[in-house]
Design brief:
Shape: globular
CATH superfamily of the largest domain: P-loop containing nucleotide triphosphate hydrolases
Radius of gyration: 28 Å
Number of helices: 15
Strand order of the largest sheet: 4-3-5-2-6-1-7-8-9
Strand content: 5-15%
Number of strands: 9
Order of helices and strands: HHEHEEEEEHEHHEHHEHHHHHHH
Largest sheet: 9 strands, mixed
CATH class of the largest domain: Alpha Beta
Number of domains: 2
CATH topology of the largest domain: Rossmann fold
């Protein structure tokens, strides 16, 4: 049975197009990754130092107290499944499954990942992944890297977000920070000790630069509010801070899915022009407007305007060559200077190069074939760059730089340039 996300007509159409097995590269690779992105649940990673209330926060967000994960396991997942089932992965790579709940299982000491699956419709759109950042400095950085690699949206649990946590968080890339939340757990206890407001005031300027938002949460109150026998206590749920946090996460998931679907539509439209058409669409008849013949003076004036327009277009294309050379050289240097290049910065630089060219050539006057051809190349380049930005990673960055170099190469090959 498909989920509501998977029966979206855009996803169905993309599946059918990919199933034709005749996609030209790199559309086949980009399409497969885009389909995987659209059909998998959003990964909500709940991370933080040891003992910061991560498990309780997840229990509160899903309103289920029986989901308590195994202690001392690096990665714990909570996901939708057809039945209650626990999966346990050990250090040797073996995976065992047990019917029922993790809390009732004997977890081996060498377990590296556990996964609780539940037939709960609230888990269809998102998985919750708990990662404890603990151990030596190297182990903490490795755990943080794992959290970054998994996260579509991250919730960092803390009581005070002290210096050690701030230093760790500085390693998180901006595209994750843009979709991250700082949850001040045990807010009720901080309130009783009289330190909650001072913590919030101290952290506000940090949160403004590093997180999507700051949410003080009294998780025990939130769990109690949602698990009353008769009906949820809405007032307690709201005052616990849990409602505001869950509402924001839900809103971010909806907005992210909408953006992904919009990008899929763009991809499908572009892909449709690349696939062979089984039945070409008949051209509609075009009725040309009649016009009076030009006089000699009008023809001469038109020729002068055309010559001036062509000169302007060639000058703009010459500037375009310089723009591409400058951007491509900088990006190649970035790729060569470090073993692990900043791929997000490279992709952003490629996008800036395309935008610069579009603005530059958009100012050219006249119906010049050279300029028109370049506009077509730029439009295709923008669409391809969109796909690379979806993929991220080193391969996508290399593809984007290659695209810039190809555009630069094609410029001198245009007629009369």
């Amino acid at each position: 049975m498909k989920s509501a996300e998977q029966v979206n007509p855009v996803i169905d159409r993309l599946e059918r197009m990919l199933g034709q097995d005749n996609l030209p590269p790199p559309y086949d690779r980009c399409g497969a990754r885009l389909l995987g992105l659209l059909t998998r649940p959003v990964q909500v990673v709940v991370a933080g130092l040891e003992g910061k209330g991560k498990s309780r926060l997840i229990e509160m967000m899903v309103a289920r107290t029986e989901t308590r994960q195994a202690q001392n396991v690096p990665v714990s997942e909570l996901a939708h499944g057809e039945s209650e089932q626990a999966l346990i992965e050990r250090a040797d790579g073996s995976v065992s499954s047990v019917a029922g709940l993790l809390k009732d299982c004997d977890i081996p000491e060498d377990a590296v990942r556990v996964r609780q699956e539940l037939p709960d419709p609230r888990l269809i759109q998102q998985d919750f992944v708990e990662i404890s950042v603990c151990g030596t400095d190297d182990e903490k950085r490795a755990a943080l890297d794992d959290a970054i690699a998994r996260a579509d949206l991250m919730i960092w649990c803390s009581q005070d977000f002290a210096e050690e946590e701030q230093q760790l968080w500085s390693l998180v890339p901006d595209h994750i920070k843009d979709h991250s939340i700082l949850a001040l757990t045990m807010a009720d206890q901080q309130l009783m000790r009289g330190v909650l407001q001072s913590n919030i005031a101290r952290l506000e300027p940090i949160v403004a630069d590093e997180f999507l938002g700051l949410f003080p949460v009294a998780t025990i109150q939130g769990i109690t509010a949602q698990n009353r026998a008769e009906a949820p206590n809405e007032a307690l749920w709201s005052s616990s801070g849990g409602k505001s946090l869950v509402d924001l996460v839900s809103r971010q998931i909806r907005q992210g899915r909408t953006a992904d679907i919009d990008q899929a539509r763009i991809f499908i439209d572009r892909l449709a022009t690349e696939l062979p058409q089984s039945a070409p669409i008949a051209n509609l008849p075009v009725v040309a407007a009649r016009s009076a013949p030009m006089t000699e003076s009008q023809a001469a004036g038109a020729a002068d305007e055309t010559a001036a327009s062509e000169g302007d277009a060639l000058a703009d294309l010459s500037k375009a060559v310089n723009v591409l050379q400058r951007h491509a050289a900088r990006m190649l240097d970035a790729l060569e200077e470090t073993e692990v290049p900043d791929t997000d910065t490279i992709l952003k630089d490629c996008n800036e190069a395309i935008n610069s060219l579009t603005t530059l050539l958009g100012s050219s006057a006249g119906d010049d074939p050279v300029n028109d051809a370049m506009h077509g190349d730029l439009q295709e380049g923008e669409e391809m760059l969109m796909l690379f930005q979806l993929e991220r990673g080193v391969d996508a960055a290399l593809d984007a730089v290659t695209l810039m170099l190809q555009l630069r190469k094609e410029l001198p090959d245009k007629p009369e340039l």
